[in-house]
Amino acid sequence: MDELTNPYSPGAGLRPAALAGRETQLRVWSTATGRLESHRTARSVVLQGLRGVGKTVLLGEFQRLASTDGWITAMVEAGTGQSLRASLAQALHPELADLAKPSAGARIRKALRTFSAFTVKVDLEGTWSFGLDLHDDPPSAANTGNLELDLIQLGRDLSAAAAESGTGLALLIDEAQDLTRDELTALCSLSHQAGQRGWPLLIALAGLPSLPRVLSEAKSYSERLFSYHRIGELDPTAAGQALTFPAQQEGVDWEPAAVEFVIAETAGYPYFLQEYGQATWNAAPGSPLRLDDARLGAALGQAHLDQGFYRSRWERATPQQRAYLQAMAEDGNGPSLSSTVAKRLGKTPTALGPARDALIKKGLVYAPEHGHIGFTVPRMADFITKQSTT
Asked: Are β-strands 44-48 and 72-77 bridged in parallel, bridged antiparallel, or unpaired?
């Protein structure tokens, strides 16, 4: 088949041609924005799941839907070495620049002034100006240096400016488990204030399965602030749609047996479906895509995953850390007890603490709950087991 017309898109955060199986989350988000536009209450959203299940894609779709409705939006990624304040400032500036017109009303001018104060800590030279003279406007208190206070001030004024046109403010943060404790606390406080005072403001956080625990450690009432959604593998119907719909758009069919084979081989994980779908398309001589094509595509797709998706993570680990990962892999793909891993390695959990913490910081493992440790990507244990036997 022609690779130029291949409709599958494996990659970090790339939107697939068919966003199948995520209707519930999209409906929850659309309902929340609609309720706030109607001056009703709505909870912010948390997406939790392993890597490669489509959290970033969903977050991007949330932003697209809100932007289409005219909302002020900012989507950022935590864990990039930049503070949340700096990341939000960079993401919000182009959005607010579009509002900075000579005819801007009082609420918009106040929002611009507040943003300027909020960014003082990261924009000392004033390069994020708006071409408006705001010096005669009342000063803002959003530069106290306390992120929680400053973020609440920013959220209040920006959402008030958006409300002038019947919309709101949406802050979307990927890899949220990598936010600092103070940043998580500030976001929880902002969400709490927005709900209590009726501001049209939504926060969407995406992260590993440990994110709900991390949030509860930052603010004990966080479980009441957010609507939590586990994002995982697709059911067979949705997985089939993810495979067949993109091909049908190009006039190509799949044999049912080929679809069933790929779904079984990928266990319905969205990233794997895209990888296997792309490889099957490239391997097939023509339509329909047959079972033999799917078998070859599965082999090629898995080889690509092994060399890229998995190996890049494996090679980031030191020999000591790889030993830790191999001990975890003995439990398969489910979480392991930290004490069991330590016993296998002949050490105490305390002695292995530095290696465990380093693996967490590298994004290779996460702590789903106290005393447990799990892989951040699906089927990592299978890859590690193959390394031990080759």
From this structure: unpaired
| Domains detected in the chain | 23-230 (3.40.50.300), 236-313 (1.10.8), 317-388 (1.10.10.10)
172 burial level (CB within 10 Å; 0-12, 13-18, 19+): buried
The two beta strands, 72-77 and 169-174, are parallel
- Which among 202, 266, 244 has a CA at the least distance from the CA of 53? 266
Q: Quick one: tokens of 338?
A: 């930290």
Per-residue CA distances from 215 to 176, 181, 359 (Å): 9, 9, 21
- Average pLDDT of the segment spanning 251-278: 97
In 3D, which of 85, 42, 101, 97 has the Cα closest to residue 66? 42
Is 381's pLDDT higher than 70? yes
- Give the SS3 label for residue 243: helix
Check whether 1 has a pLDDT greater than 90: no
The verdict on whether omega for the bond into residue 368 sits within 30 degrees of 0, i.e. cis, is no
CA distance 375 to 130: 45
The C-alpha R_g of the chain, in whole angstroms, comes to 23
Of 31 and 12, the structure prediction assigns the larger pLDDT to 31
The answer to whether 169 and 159 are in contact (CB under 8 A) is: yes
- Over residues 100-114, the pLDDT tens digits come to 765 567 888 888 888
The pTM for the full model equals 0.91
* The pLDDT of residue 94 is above 70: yes
Spatial distance between the Cα atoms of 10 and 390, rounded to a whole number of angstroms: 27
Please tell me the distance from the alpha carbon of residue 276 to that of residue 264, in angstroms, as a whole number.
11
Closest to 213 measured CA to CA, from 243, 176, 245, 183: 176
Among residues 208, 189, 253, 254, the alpha carbon closest in space to that of 378 is found at 208
